[in-house]
Specification:
The protein has about 280 residues and is an alpha/beta fold. Helices cover about 25% and strands about 25% of the residues. It has a 7-stranded mixed beta sheet, sandwiched between helices.
Length: about 280
């Protein structure tokens, strides 16, 4: 925990800081011009979408596919997915944080000829209703739902009430037509990834999409969490690989022996019988 986070948790903290956004234009080597709304929060990621990452996603995504970005924030992960699946495809981008959602919404409308993004202002939760998310700084740039983790461990003193929904129920009710096309689900939920995947169990079993999941920080995770997440994926038949972003989406195979080798990392989970193109 940082010193300032300690004082924030004691109640010595400033009020919320609200930042706008600015539209930037980037030229990618193969995908050409892309417009992006960049959040002016100094803690936020900025810069062009990675052409390397778009190319890596195209190793298993095709035009017309549907992808889901859970924890999209400004859309920095959403845009490469949207370029990979093209305007005939669709990316459902979930971001419940009201301080950043307008930035995602703005980006989603900027490139109608090359990508199709549907921004959704809610979190993927077990059920529908309002929940409290916690963030580490007054600009609300990094945080989430820290289930089972002490506030003195995650160090996030700034809270905001957000809407949560069961995503599987939402899709079956509001967008059943996209379910047969779901090819990829990315989850970045600050250690809540396993619970999110469990709520999508029916769709995952039926569609067997590729999955990108974060192996959240060991020092901030409840005991046994990482192994439970790994076991869940393997039980569904997935092969789990560390992502060596942005140059190699299919890195070293993850096993119980190396599961805890890195403090935090992302994995690509390849469904049974599927492959990642060279």
């Amino acid at each position: 925990m940082k010193v300032k986070e300690f004082f924030y948790l004691l109640g010595l903290k400033p009020g919320p800081r609200i930042y706008g956004s600015a539209v930037e234009t980037y030229e990618l080597p193969r995908d050409g011009r892309v417009l992006v709304a960049e959040w002016l929060n100094p803690s936020a990621r900025r810069g062009p979408p990675s052409q390397e990452w778009v190319d890596q996603l195209r190793r298993f995504l095709d035009p017309g596919d549907v992808a889901i970005d859970i924890g999209a924030q400004t859309g920095d992960t959403t845009v490469p997915m949207a370029l990979a699946v093209g305007p005939s495809g669709l990316v459902l981008a979930l971001e419940p944080n009201p301080y950043v959602f307008p930035v995602l919404e703005r980006t989603a409308a900027l490139n109608p000829a090359t990508m199709h993004i549907l921004p959704l202002p809610f979190a993927a939760m077990r059920g529908d209703g309002e929940v409290e998310f916690q963030y580490g700084e007054p600009g609300f740039s990094n945080g989430g739902f820290h289930e089972g983790v002490s506030r003195w461990l995650h160090g996030s003193a700034f809270t905001v009430r957000v809407q949560g929904r069961n995503l599987q129920d939402f899709l079956r009710r509001e967008h059943p037509e996209v379910i047969p096309r779901i090819r990829f689900i990315k989850v970045d939920a600050e250690g809540f990834d396993l619970a999110v995947l469990e709520t999508l169990d029916g769709i995952i079993r039926a569609r067997q999409p590729y999955l990108e999941v974060e192996m959240f920080a060991l020092r901030k995770s409840p005991p046994g969490y990482r192994r439970a997440l790994f076991d869940f994926l393997v039980a569904l038949g997935y092969a789990v690989h560390r992502i060596d972003a942005p140059h190699n989406i299919l890195g070293e195979a993850i096993t119980p022996d190396n599961l805890a080798r890195w403090e935090t990392y992302d994995v690509l989970c390849v469904p049974p019988g599927a492959r990642v193109r060279a």
